[in-house]
Design a protein that fits this description.
Length: about 325
C-alpha cells in the first residue's frame, strides 16, 4: 500500500466516524490493515474508535492501546514496569491519568477494582483539580500528576504502573459488564432546581461542534441557573449534587452528574460526537442517570433545545429525577 493509499484510508475512516458510520469505518480500516499495514499504530488507533462506537469494548480498548499518547507517557521514564494485567499479588500499583478532567472522572470508576486484582497499595496521579474529588475512592495516595506552578512532582514508591485508559483493557471490560451506577459522592450546596451548561473548554479541538453558541439554551430556559467553570472538581460536584437536573453539552459537568447519579440531559452534536455516546441512542451504559438528546442536523441546536423545553413543560412538577 502506498503512503497515499494509507492517508486516504485514514481520512475516509475518520470522516465516516464523524458522521457516526462506525461499521463502514471499521471496514475501511480493516481493508487497509489487510493490505500490508496490520501493525500500523495509527490505523489500529482509528480502528479502536470504530469498535468503541459500536460498543465492542473488549476489542476496542485493546486497539486503544495503540494511542500515541501511551507511547509518549511520562510514566515511560519511571524505573518500574508497566502493568500487563496479571494478578498483582500484593504489589503496589501507580495509576497515571491522561486526557481531560472529564475523561479522568469517567475512568476513575475502574481504579478501586485493582484491589480485586490483588493490589497491595493503589496510588493515583491525576489532574490537580480532581485530587480532592478522588480522595473518596479509598486509595492509598492521590496526588497531582503535575505542578501548575511548575517544578517536579514527587511520585510515591511503587512496583508497577498503568495509564488510566489502559484499565478497561487490562481489567477485561466488556459492554455487558459496564456498571453505570454512581461512584462519587458530594454534600450538595443547595436543594432543587435546574442547572445548564452551554459551552465547554474553548481549547478543546471539537468545541465548535459540541458547544451551543449565543446563549440559545439560557434564553430558552430562563428559569435555569447557568453553571460556570470552577477550579476544584469537588466544589463542582457539590454544586451539581444540589440540582434536580443538569442540562449540558458534552463537558466534564456531564461526567460529574453521571458519577454522582444526578439526572442529566446531555445535548449532543449530529457530527463529531465523542466515542462514548452511541449515536441516536437516548441512554448510555456509562451513566445510568444520563439521557441523550441529539441534533438532527449539523450545527442546528434549535430542535434539540425545543425538545428539551417541551419535555420540561410536560413534567408536572419538573422533578427530573423521574424524567
Amino acid at each position: 500500500m502506498s503512503p497515499l493509499d494509507r492517508t486516504a484510508c485514514l481520512a475516509a475512516a475518520r470522516r465516516l466516524l464523524d458522521v457516526h458510520r462506525a461499521v463502514e469505518a471499521e471496514a475501511v480500516v480493516r481493508a487497509a490493515c489487510a493490505a500490508g499495514r496490520a501493525d500500523d499504530p495509527e490505523l489500529l488507533f482509528t480502528l479502536a474508535f470504530a469498535l468503541l462506537r459500536q460498543g465492542r469494548y473488549a476489542e476496542g480498548f485493546a486497539a486503544y492501546e495503540h494511542r500515541e499518547a501511551r507511547a509518549k507517557a511520562e510514566t515511560r521514564q519511571l524505573p518500574t514496569p508497566e502493568w500487563d494485567g496479571a494478578p498483582l499479588a500484593g504489589r503496589s500499583i501507580l495509576v497515571w491519568t491522561e486526557q481531560g478532567i472529564g475523561d479522568e472522572i469517567q475512568l476513575a470508576r475502574f481504579i478501586p477494582q485493582l484491589r480485586g486484582r490483588g493490589a497491595g497499595r493503589v496510588l493515583l496521579g491525576c489532574h490537580p483539580a480532581n485530587v480532592r474529588a478522588f480522595d473518596q475512592l479509598g486509595l492509598d495516595a492521590v496526588f497531582p500528576r503535575f505542578n501548575p506552578g511548575g517544578g517536579q512532582v514527587s511520585v510515591p514508591a511503587h512496583d508497577c504502573w498503568t495509564l488510566i485508559f489502559s484499565l478497561p483493557h487490562r481489567l477485561g471490560l466488556a459492554f455487558e459488564t459496564l456498571d453505570g451506577g454512581p461512584y462519587l459522592a458530594a454534600e450538595p450546596e443547595r436543594r432543587g432546581g435546574i442547572a445548564i451548561v452551554e459551552r465547554g473548554n474553548p481549547k478543546n479541538p471539537n468545541d465548535a461542534a459540541r458547544s451551543i453558541p449565543d446563549g440559545l439554551l439560557q434564553r430558552a430556559l430562563p428559569q435555569a441557573e447557568l453553571l460556570e467553570p470552577m477550579g476544584d472538581v469537588l466544589e463542582s460536584l457539590r454544586r451539581v449534587a444540589g440540582f434536580d437536573l443538569l442540562i449540558t453539552v458534552d463537558t466534564s459537568w456531564a461526567h460529574m452528574a453521571g458519577a454522582l447519579g444526578v439526572p442529566c440531559w446531555l445535548l449532543l452534536p449530529a457530527e463529531r460526537a465523542d466515542w462514548r455516546w452511541f449515536p441516536k441512542a437516548d441512554r448510555t451504559p456509562w451513566y445510568d442517570s444520563l439521557r441523550l438528546f441529539w441534533q438532527e442536523a449539523r450545527g442546528d441546536w434549535s430542535g434539540v433545545i425545543g425538545e428539551v423545553a417541551a419535555r420540561l413543560q410536560r413534567a408536572v412538577p419538573p422533578d427530573s429525577r423521574r424524567v
